[in-house]
Each structure stands twice: as structure tokens, then as C-alpha cells.
Design goal:
GO molecular function: lipid-linked peptidoglycan transporter activity; peptidoglycan glycosyltransferase activity
Number of domains: 1
InterPro entries: FtsW/RodA
Largest sheet: 2 strands, antiparallel
Family: Belongs to the SEDS family. FtsW subfamily.
Shape: globular
Protein name: Probable peptidoglycan glycosyltransferase FtsW
Number of helices: 15
Membrane topology: Multi-pass membrane protein
Strand order of the largest sheet: 1-2
Strand content: under 5%
Order of helices and strands: HHHHHEEHHHHHHHHHH
């Protein structure tokens, strides 16, 4: 085990907090999967779901380990080509998306032969953030021209968002917000950001009007996420109220110390208790202290991301850490906010804690790239330290040689002076 830990490169703080979140997830998932066990098997045995979750986590850590060994600049080189592949996958998902336990049919595709379902928007967001970081790092030394940036940056961004929007408004809003944050950190001119935001609002308004006018043209979830926003802002009763009500009952039941591991009651009534609303189950079983512990782990992970971004030795590395790390934490905050009804139901999972295969693996892939950035920084720092040591050793060797040469020269001069009779005369 010690040898394995020594082989882990990169920021040890990120490794530690990710491992703690993953380990903590076992008990809530084991407990919250009971309703799925009754629906799927009829016997309530959740052991199979726990084993499945452990396998997903183990595969995820394998992904982190393999990806963090790769130089992160490789992803800069392939991001543009990967974006075209993502567009094809997103288009296929809109047309041929599959249903997952009654959930949205346009978010998921089923991988052939292995039968694993995959949410393409998670891959799309990761590729898009790397693509934006690549563009911003490329234009660092050149003044940004808005017209050229529209074609090189914003057209690919909006095309990607357009594929995701009909099926998943929350993910679209999250990705767009993170892109704006990324370009702001990358010193994209504020007046241009204002134009982009205004254009995005106009486009979204137009899209909603068209969707309401021609509902048959959008056989996806447009009506669902529009009604969710309407119900949330107007307090109208809706089908999501049932989930929110059960989540709030779970949170209220937990109080300070919780009911105890595995003793949740509302897990039997919440449809997405092991994924979208797992935070409510955590508070019910572990209380407010358990919820604050989870929140603290995410905030500490965010703190390590900030440190990793500041220490990165290239602009692309800084932007990659921000673009892949911050959305992870923001998604966690959105999930928690939904559980306490600060936001409408979004379908965002709690990273590294909620059950699920592809979402865990994509999160781990992003973490692998972030750790790869920190590993490179450590390697550069170690190279500088080694170079300083070599320079110091060389300087000591030179100083010693000079001292020896000086001593030898001084010895000869004293000996010659003693042997030369003229020196005695001159001294008199």
C-alpha cells in the first residue's frame, strides 16, 4: 500500500479529498438503494447495488491513475477534433436516446455490446472546457478580435449547447455559466462577454417561444424543464413537488445528529434517493453535521483546485484546472440547493457520491487531467530544485579548486622567497 501511495503523483490533497468523498459514498448509496432493490428485485436486497457502486468507484480511480500519468498538453492537442466527435454523439443522443428507469430519453445512449448507459453531455462539457482553455491560452499574447473569436470560440460553444438544451436545460445553464467564468479568468474583454450574454438570453427566449408555439417539433424534455421553472417561480403544484416535499421531510427528520446509518425513512419514497436526492438522505441519516462534513469536503477540494491553478506553470494548465475543477464543485452545490428547494429540480448528481457509472467515470477523468497538471508542476519544481543542487555542488567544487590552487601558489611563493639570496638583501 505504501508503495502504491508513493506511485501517486500530483497534489496529495486532491487525492485525499477525492478518496474521502468516495469512501463516504458507500454507506449512503447502500442505504438509499433500497427502493431500487424493491422495484427491481422485489426483495429489498441492496448488497448488489453497493457492490456495483464499489466497482464503479474502483474503475473511476483506475481512470484517474491512468489519466494522471499522461501529460496534460496531450488533451490540448486533441480537444478540437474531440469536439466534432462530441457533436455527433450529442446529435445521436437527441435522436436515439434511451430511457433510464423512466428518466429522460434524450440524455443517455447505450454503448453497444457492453450494455452500459452513457450521458453524453458530461463528456461534451469536459471537452468544451478544454477547448475553451486551449483558445484562451493560444490568444494570450495577441489582442482578441471579437469577430474572429465569434467563429473560433463562440460558434463551437453555442453549437454544443444547442445540442444539449432541448433535453437538459440545467446542464446547458451550468456549462454556459462555467464557460463565462473561464473566459473571464482568461481575461477575455468584459464588453465582449456582455454581448455574448445578451445574445444567449435572446436566443434562449426565442427557443422557448418556438418550443411553446410548436411543441410537436421538440419531442424531448423542453416542456418538462419549462414547467419546472414556471412551477418554481410561481409556486404552482407540480409533479416535482412530491420529490421536494419528501426531501425536506428527510432533512427535517435528520436534525443535528441524524437517525443513524441505514435508518432513513424517506429513502423508500424518494424516486431518485441514491442519485439526485442523496444529499437529503445523508442529512436524514447523519444529521446536519453529516451534511456540513460533505459540504466541507467539497470546499476543501475547491481550495486545492485554487492552489493547483495558481501553481500551474502555464496558462493552459491554470485554465484546465479551473474549467474542469470548478464545475464539479458548482454541480455539488446545485445538487444540495435542489434538496433544500433553493433551486428547481435539475437532475444534477452529487459528484463522487451519487450512484451511477458514467457520471463517476467522467468526474474521475476530469480529476485525472487536473492531477496531471499538478504532477507536471511538481516535476518542474523538482527539476528546478535538482538544478539548484547541481549548481550549488558545482560552485562548491569550483571554490574548493580555487582554494587549493591559491594555497599551492602561496606555498611556492614562500619557498622561492626563502631560497633566493637577493630577497634577504632587498629586505635589508
Amino acid at each position: 500500500m505504501k508503495q502504491l501511495i508513493n506511485n501517486l503523483k500530483g497534489d496529495k490533497g486532491i487525492w485525499s479529498f477525492v478518496a474521502l468523498l468516495a469512501l463516504f459514498s458507500f454507506m449512503p448509496v447502500f442505504s438509499a438503494s433500497s427502493n431500487l432493490a424493491y422495484i427491481g428485485q422485489g426483495n429489498g436486497n441492496t448488497l448488489g447495488y453497493l457492490v456495483k457502486h464499489i466497482v464503479h468507484i474502483c474503475i473511476g480511480f483506475g481512470i484517474i491513475f491512468m489519466v494522471h500519468k499522461l501529460p496534460y498538453h496531450y488533451f490540448k492537442a486533441v480537444s478540437k477534433g474531440a469536439l466534432y466527435i462530441v457533436w455527433v454523439l450529442l446529435a445521436y443522443t437527441l435522436i436515439k436516446g434511451t430511457v433510464i428507469a423512466g428518466a429522460n430519453a434524450s440524455r443517455w445512449i447505450q454503448l453497444p455490446f457492453i450494455g452500459v448507459t452513457f450521458q453524453t453531455s458530461t463528456l461534451a462539457s469536459m471537452v468544451l472546457f478544454i477547448f475553451v482553455a486551449r483558445y484562451l491560452s493560444k490568444t494570450r499574447e495577441v489582442p482578441i478580435n471579437f469577430k474572429s473569436s465569434v467563429w473560433e470560440l463562440w460558434v463551437p460553444v453555442f453549437v454544443t449547447l444547442l445540442f444539449i438544451l432541448p433535453a437538459n436545460f440545467s446542464t446547458t445553464a451550468l456549462i454556459f455559466s462555467m464557460v463565462l467564468m473561464l473566459v473571464f479568468i482568461g481575461k477575455y474583454p468584459l464588453r465582449y462577454i456582455g454581448i455574448v450574454v445578451g445574445s444567449g438570453i435572446v436566443f434562449l427566449t426565442f427557443f422557448i417561444l418556438v418550443a411553446k408555439t410548436f411543441p410537436e417539433a421538440f419531442p424531448n424534455r423542453v416542456d418538462t424543464w419549462i414547467s419546472r421553472i414556471d412551477n418554481f417561480t410561481s409556486d404552482k403544484p407540480g409533479e416535482d413537488d412530491y420529490q421536494i416535499e419528501k426531501a425536506k421531510i428527510a432533512i427535517a427528520s435528520g436534525k443535528i445528529y441524524g437517525l443513524g446509518p441505514g435508518k432513513s425513512v424517506q429513502k423508500n419514497f424518494l424516486p431518485q434517493s441514491s442519485s439526485d436526492f442523496i444529499f437529503a438522505i445523508i442529512i436524514e441519516e447523519y444529521g446536519l453535521l453529516g451534511g456540513l462534513l460533505v459540504l466541507a469536503l467539497y470546499l476543501l477540494l475547491l481550495f486545492r483546485f485554487v492552489i493547483a491553478s495558481r501553481k500551474a506553470n502555464s496558462l493552459f494548465g491554470k485554465l484546465v484546472v479551473v474549467g474542469l475543477g470548478f464545475p464539479m464543485i458548482f454541480q455539488a452545490m446545485v445538487n444540495m440547493a435542489v434538496a433544500v428547494e433553493l433551486l428547481p429540480v435539475t437532475g444534477q448528481t452529487l459528484p463522487l457520491i451519487s450512484s451511477g457509472g458514467s457520471s463517476i467515470w467522467m468526474t474521475c477523468f476530469a480529476l485525472g487531467i487536473i492531477i496531471s497538471v499538478t504532477k507536471k508542476d511538481e516535476e518542474v519544481a523538482q527539476e528546478r530544485k535538482d538544478a539548484a543542487k547541481r549548481e550549488e555542488a558545482l560552485q562548491k567544487l569550483i571554490d574548493r579548486e580555487l582554494e587549493e590552487d591559491g594555497a599551492v601558489a602561496q606555498g611556492y611563493s614562500i619557498e622561492d622567497k626563502a631560497k633566493n639570496p637577493m630577497n634577504a638583501v632587498l629586505n635589508k
